[in-house]
Design a protein that fits this description.
Elements (H helix, E strand, L loop, with lengths): L1 E6 H8 L5 E12 L9 E13 L3 H10 L6 E11 L3 E10 L4 E9 L3 E9 L8 H11 E7 L4 E4 L1 H5 L31
Antiparallel strand pairs: 1-2, 2-3, 3-4, 4-5, 5-6, 6-7, 7-8, 8-9
């Protein structure tokens, strides 16, 4: 399936999505599954966003807080991922570029709504985007974001990079979604119309 300039603002209105969401998305979705379950999907997704704000995307909310920005305007962004049919989504790369920031990353996401991403966030302007300066600063600004999508954990990766060790995710408590507040005016036993 090819997407061409899908309006995220219109999508937000039609689906009643809470939070800032705007811009245009284009790309290609090539997924195949032997069942209706997304767990068994195999294939790839490539998306590009232009002139967008992604304030309602849970994992990005964490990144905005990490760098101390409200949801900024994204001049351009890219996402390249693959699904392997076993419930794991490989995020081969993602990037978000704006006037005052550049975010890049890669990692994995699972169908149990957990993530494990390596993210580099540059917010100091043009000087931090220069090749040699960028490589030196990346040592200090790369973060590991892991855990449940709704409340991920953040760990700094500098020590792991200095010692040339891969990130070992510390265990996090079992995440159970919070139940919604029940409507006490409706009986669960006696149906009332």
């Amino acid at each position: 399936t090819t997407l061409s300039d899908i309006d995220l603002g219109l999508m937000r209105e039609q689906l009643n999505i809470v939070g800032a969401l705007s811009g245009k998305v284009s790309g290609r979705i090539d997924l195949d599954s032997p069942s209706p379950s997304p767990t068994f999907c195999k294939g790839s997704v490539t998306l590009e966003i232009k002139d967008g704000i992604l304030g309602s995307v849970p994992i990005l909310k964490t990144i905005w807080i990490l760098v101390g920005l409200p949801a900024p305007i994204i001049d351009k962004g890219n996402l390249d991922l693959e699904m392997n049919g076993t419930g794991t989504i490989s995020v081969n790369s993602f990037s978000l570029d704006g006037n005052a920031f550049e975010f890049t990353g890669k990692g994995t996401a699972n169908m149990d709504a957990s993530i494990n991403l390596k993210v580099t966030a540059r917010t100091l302007g043009l000087i931090t985007r220069l090749p040699l300066v960028k490589d030196l600063l990346d040592l200090f600004i790369e973060q590991q974001i892991y855990g449940p999508v709704e409340s991920p954990q953040i760990a700094h990766r500098a020590w792991a990079k200095i010692t040339n060790n891969d990130f070992a995710r510390p265990p996090f408590p079992l995440w159970i979604p919070s139940p919604g507040t029940p409507d006490w005016n409706i009986s669960p036993v006696i149906p009332v119309q």
